[in-house]
Amino acid sequence: MPSPTQQSGEGLSRRHALCAAGAGALAMLMPRVVLADEAAVAEALKKLYGGKAMAEGRIKLDVPPIAENGLVVPIGVEVDSPMTEADHVKAVHVFADGNPLPGVVTYRFTPDCGKASATTRMRLAQSQNIVCVAEMSNGALFTAKAPVKVTIGGCGG
User: Fold this and answer.
1) What is the distance between the alpha carbons of residues 15 and 117, in angstroms, rounded to a whole number?
2) How far apart are CA 150 and CA 128, in angstroms?
3) CA nearest neighbour of 54 among 118, 142, 152, 155
4) Which residues, 6 or more positions from 27, have their beta carbon under 8 angstroms from its beta carbon?
5) How confident is the model at residue 30 (pLDDT cuts 50, 70, 90)?
6) H/E element holding 28?
7) What sign has the CA pseudo-torsion 8, 9, 14, 20?
8) Containing H/E element for 29?
9) First to last CA, the chain
10) To pair with 3 at 20 to 30 A between CA atoms, which of 23, 119, 127, 153?
11) Segment 44-85, tens digit of pLDDT
12) Are residues 89 and 46 in contact, defined by beta-carbon separation less than 8 angstroms?
């Protein structure tokens, strides 16, 4: 005997049709995870600094070359600066070019900090490059880049 939701002779019950329609609607509403790339990092830097030139050096970027767990990747940043009123680090921006959002963290410094260094842990969705930019009080920009290979975990599973 056919169920109340199925007419005899039909291949697809009304219940199954409604479930399929609901699943399709839900799939359309679910956000798609889009990962950043080098262009997204470049665009974020362009928003911050326009086309201003960046020099390499003065930044010590401490990240592991291989992260066994992408959920907790340690990062250390230190910028060589006397940290005086006339010459100090104003900000340090850290980007990851393979995460859903390229910006990871921004640190702000003043001469009172004494030293421009900070550490944290970040989540990486996949193997990618970490890009760091230091903004100096005189307007100069310095950059450093390091690749990190993620073996398991991360934002993407």
Assistant:
1) 60
2) 8
3) 142
4) none
5) very low
6) helix 14-29
7) positive
8) helix 14-29
9) 45
10) 23
11) 889 999 989 999 999 999 999 999 889 999 999 999 999 999
12) no
Q: Are 102 and 40 in contact (CB under 8 A)?
A: yes
Find the helix or strand (DSSP H, E) in which 117 lies: strand 116-122
Asked if 122 and 105 count as a contact pair (C-beta separation under 8 A), the reply is yes
Quick one: tokens of 55?
Answer: 């020099």
Contact 62, 76 (CB under 8 A): yes
Q: Which two tokens stand for residue 154?
A: 């991360």
Distance of alpha carbon 128 from alpha carbon 132, whole angstroms: 13
| Superfamily for domain range 38-150 | SoxY domain (2.60.40.2470)
Q: Where are the domains positioned within the chain?
A: 38-150
How many angstroms separate the CA atoms of 134 and 137, rounded?
10
Element (H, E) at 15: helix 14-29
CA–CA distance from 109 to each of 85, 88, 112, 117, 150 (Å)?
11, 8, 8, 9, 30
Two structure tokens written together for 113:
């900090």
Average pLDDT over residues 25-51: 73
